Amino acid sequence: MSGSEDMKIKNINKNTMHCDDIYSNWYNKEDSYFILCKEKEILNLQHIFEFEDDTIEECIYDDEKVRFESFKEYDFISLNNLSWENKNVILEEINIYIGYNYIILVGEQSGNEIEEIYDYISLKISNLTHEKKELNKIYFWIFDMILKNYINTLESVEEDILTLENNIINEIEKRYFSQINCIRQQMDKITKNLRALLYVGDQFMINENKFIKRENQRYFRNIDVRINKLYDFSISLKSRSDQLIYLHNSGLTSHTNDIATRLTVLAIFFGPLTVITGIYGMNFDYMPELHWIYGYQFTLGIMATLTIILYAVFKKKKWL
Description:
It is a multi-pass membrane protein. Helix content is about 55%, strand content about 15%.
């Protein structure tokens, strides 16, 4: 097998790293390991830990599905890490193998988030005393960091929804409609992932393979509660994003009504003037005012007076 620049194998007990010599005789069942690898690199570990082929395929081929399955010697978890960039949710698939003496993170070839998770946890491991170095802490830290990314993503979405709400209230523009549809689609994607993640939280409570020690179960109950709260948060934001459509349509209707009102006011202004000009535009021979020396000024005065009266009435009723 060829070497790998990406795979990192940390011996937790001895606090040593295996990078260049990962295909030498490094594995000892008496030690515990925290391992990072990318997609196809998991093939290099399959013969050691005897992983099922379908889990290997899950790692190699990204499908954005959330899955938790317990096998005889290990648990396999597939989920998505979230981030919010340029009004779009970015999904980075993370696959996790949990055994009695190892935790393996498998990430996308081009993904960076999983390396940040690995480096963050490796640092925390290094700061622990030898007696406190255990896999359950790593297991918890992984989900703790992933859920923090979820909450950061949801809070960023919330800020964008609030900004969009304020923009729609202040003015109606066509571009807001496409932004609303975009943010609704992104919320559907986030909610779908969190709904599936609820099942993972349930599996922590079942703890079929007993990888979670009794004294550490309270930490994973905390993870389960946080997943449920995040799901509730996402449902709330999804509802708010859906309401943006009604807000936009309401604003558009109000804007249309305002234009119609202004046109109606103009029509009322010009209505009496049109009647007067229409009357004196008729071709009758006997119209007294036609030959009156002040007829023209009198007619203009009536038209001006009507205009002033209408303006005063509309202003009082706040139609102008």
